[in-house]
Specification:
The chain is an alpha+beta fold and 159 residues long. The protein has five helices and five strands. The termini are far apart.
Length: 159
Amino acid sequence: MTLIREARPGDEARWRQLWAAYCAFYRSAVPEAVTATTWGRILDPLAPVFCLVAEREGEVIGFAVSVVHARTWSIAPIVYLEDLYVDETVRGGGVGFALIEGLKAESRRRGACQLYWHTEGDNRAARRLYDRFQPADGYVRYRLDLQGIGDSDKAGFLA
């Protein structure tokens, strides 16, 4: 049986293992300072970031990191599921589904009126899971990098 619960300080080592695998999947090198800050935000009750973990037989096997934020179209906040990852060895066993169901419940508990996320268009495995909840809405994402990678473009953008 899979237990969905909020992350706790003792989950850090395992979360970091899964986080590294998640970042590798997306071919991203996330600096240690960012990883440490993310974990700190997860544990900070005043931060808008929270993390649910999936646990089976005492081992964390997946996570969902989300951000609660205000919305201009409602009074209630909304929740953005930023990162979802399930250990490759247990995929296909309902863990991702359980994490999203747990996230729905936690979002409601926090007073949110909506939960949303996005994924790469060619991430077929994730989209099969996500489509069980709701078909994609057709929006296209645009992203401007304002620091770090893309700094050379920032000067031109601000000029």
